[in-house]
Amino acid sequence: MTLSIPSTNLSYPNVAKAANNWQGLIQTYRPYLPVSENTPVVTLLEGNTPLIPARAIAAKIGRGVKVYVKYDGLNPTGSFKDRGMTMAISKAKEEGATAVICASTGNTSAAAAAYAKRAGMKAFVVIPDGYVALGKLAQALLYGAEVIAVDGNFDDALNIVRQLSENYPVTLVNSVNPYRLQGQKTAAFEIVDVLGNAPDWLCIPVGNAGNISAYWMGFCEYHTSGKSSRLPKMMGFQAAGAAPLVSGEPIANPDTLATAIRIGNPANWQKAVAVKESSGGEFNPVTDGEILDAYRFLASEEGVFCEPASAASVAGLFKVKDRVPDNASVVCVLTGNGLKDPTSAVDHSLNELKQGIPLNLEKVAGIMGF
Ligand SMILES: *Cc1c(COP(=O)(O)O)cnc(C)c1O
């Protein structure tokens, strides 16, 4: 079996063994995905991310509630966007595309750049100037994408790339590309595969609402095929300054430090409303202050470093915790790795860096409290 588009025809027979038989999500969930023998699988062995028990979060809720975090920041480019991108790029390759384009708050551009290059394609990424976290920008540049920072927000960037893909020979790989959601739904499969059933609640940050729609699709498909006996309540959380699905109206100037969800007019709006209605779920806002509290709590109490947007799922759970049923199981999705946004970490840590310390044993021991 070929694991990715090889630039040579070398085969790597030991890869599957070394990765504990994990061959990427397309290979693993092939019967559930729109791929055929003719689809060239472009993979970085994404997926199979840990579902980590979060006992400190659970302790803040009590009443026997079990909390897990789905740490999708451990994907190859550091966010869940890899799940969608392995599908979108494999299908684009199958259809003969030679170039892809996306608008991005950062993570989509990193994933598109990495997978496109692996497939031997050109990647164009359009980002809102000044609102992309440093790690994400670093990735898109180093993976060799053409990075175009425009004077506008994400919604403006998406408008432009939609027009570009209609008028020029470039394939759009934003979450309006249906293959993205197909790939992303596998995260729901992984959760059910570990828990043996769907959780009672799924808490998830929402920007363009592609991911919440993809999770719901995954839970529904597994339910239909008898892999789970229930469906979760889908709890979507938006930053208070960028919460159009809460207010019911697009927002012209979305504002939040959680740049990955700084979106005023979600591309998957209708799907998101349908998910809420069919799952008995909700959209709720969380303030930047609440996001930062959860961000620090995750790192300092659970040892899990995510980016600020990801912490919205935990901030949201804390906000509605009194309404979680006794003994329920809750999964919070952590969409991206904390290393994506080192600036936020340094700026918002409450922990002080002890600087200017002389190289002296007693002085250092003194600071250590000895
Ligand atoms: C893209 C992204 C989101 C939002 O996902 P949507 O599918 O746009 O709702 C949340 N967190 C991170 C880290 C992201 O990169």
Automatic annotation (TrEMBL):
Catalytic activity: O-phospho-L-homoserine + H2O = L-threonine + phosphate
PTM annotation (N6-(pyridoxal phosphate)lysine): residues: K81
Pfam families: PALP
Domain Rhodanese per the UniProt entry, residue ranges: 100-143
Cofactor(s) required, per the database record: pyridoxal 5'-phosphate
Residues engaged in binding pyridoxal 5'-phosphate: N107, G207, N208, A209, G210, N211, T335
Pathway: Amino-acid biosynthesis; L-threonine biosynthesis; L-threonine from L-aspartate: step 5/5
EC number(s) recorded for this UniProt protein: 4.2.3.1
Similarity-based family: Belongs to the threonine synthase family.
Function description: Catalyzes the gamma-elimination of phosphate from L-phosphohomoserine and the beta-addition of water to produce L-threonine.
Protein name per its UniProtKB record: Threonine synthase
Species classification: Bacteria, Bacillati, Cyanobacteriota, Cyanophyceae, Pleurocapsales
